[in-house]
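From the pipeline queue, job 12 of 40. The input is one protein chain; the requested action is below.

Action: predict structure.
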Amino acid sequence: MDWIAEMTDEDTAVWRSDLGLIADAARQAGDVALGYFNRSPEVWWKNEGRSPVSAADFAANQKLESILRAARPDYGWLSEETDDDGDRLSRETLFIIDPIDGTRAFLAGQELWCVSIAVVRRGRPVAGVLYAPALEELYEAVEGGVALKNGRPITVSTTPLDAPGRFAIAEDVLKAFPEALKHRIERVRHVPSLAYRIAMVADGQIDGTFVKHNSHDWDLAAADLILERAGGRLVDLHGEAPLYNRIQVSHGELCAAAAPRLADLLTGIGERRDS
C-alpha cells in the first residue's frame, strides 16, 4: 500500500503503542476464556446452525470491548461476536477481533484455539496479536518490525524446494493437484484454528496452508501481519494480499507460505481450477 511507504516515526510509535495495548487485552480475554475451558459453557448456534458460539466467546468479547474501545474510542470495531453496524466503514483505523478463533476446538477440549486482535489501517493490518492461552503462546507483530513468539523472533520455514514441504491442506484440494507437485507436499493433521494455522506457517512449524473460501476478516487480519513480518505472505489466487474493512468481510480462496512454496501452491491450485 502506498501509505505504508509514507509512514512516519510518529505512525510507528502509535502502532507500537497499539501493539502493547492489544497484547495486554488478548492476555486478559484469554484468561477469561480459559475460565470456561473444559467446563461445558452454554452453546448457541449461528449461521443457520452451522457455527457454534459459546458463553466463553461472548465473555471474552465483552472483556476486549471494555478494554479496547475505552482506550481508543476513535477506532472502529469489527468482531465476530458483535453485531456490525457499519460505522467501521467510516474509520481509517479499527480493531478487528475474534475473541476465540477455533471455537469448535475450544468446546472439544483441544488446546489449538486463540484470541485474535488486529489494528487495521486503510485496509491492511499494522499491529496484530494471537494469544493461545492453553498453550501459553503469544504471537505478535507490528508494521515495520519483526514477528515474535513469546518475545523471540520467528521466521518462515526454509525447507529446500527439492524436499517435501509440510502443508495444512485438505485432501480433496491436494488430490486435484498435478502429479509433478504432489510429491513435494506432505499433508499435516487438521489444525482447527485458521489464525493459529497461519501462525504455524509464520514460525516454520509448517511450510504453508490453503484457505478455503468464506474465511473472514477476523480469522485473518492479525495472522496475516504476523506471517508477513516473519517473511511469508497470505495472498489470493492472483497473488494479491487481502484487504480488510470492506463492506463484504468474507474472502475467497487464499494461500499462505514463504515465497517459493507459495508459487507451488498457486500453480497447483491454478491448474486444479483450470482442469
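Job complete. The mean pLDDT is 92.
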